[in-house]
Specification:
Elements: E1 4-6, H1 15-19, E2 25-27, E3 32-34, H2 44-48, E4 54-56
Antiparallel strand pairs: 1-4, 2-3
The protein binds iron/sulfur cluster (2 copies).
Length: about 60
């Protein structure tokens, strides 16, 4: 399963954290951060973000 990560475009609006179904997103240092152990890869954060900061973490 593909997890999501938030890049430096984040403006800390908090929309993704409110929308995440599993509560995986919290404010971090300068941007919001996704708990990789909780993320289920649903993509809701990416769909909600106004600046496209959350993206699939391709590895
Ligand atoms: Fe939450 Fe889904 Fe975004 Fe993962 S992909 S952080 S589960 S909203
Ligand atoms: Fe940052 Fe986008 Fe989440 Fe807002 S919705 S806190 S800009 S990642």
């Amino acid at each position: 399963m593909t997890k999501y990560k938030i890049n430096d475009n984040c403006i800390m609006c908090g929309a993704c954290a409110a929308a995440c179904p599993v509560g995986a997103i919290a404010p971090g240092d300068g941007k919001y951060v996704i708990d990789q152990d909780k993320c289920i890869g649903c993509g809701t954060c990416a769909a909600t973000c106004p600046v496209g900061a959350p993206n699939p973490d391709e590895k």
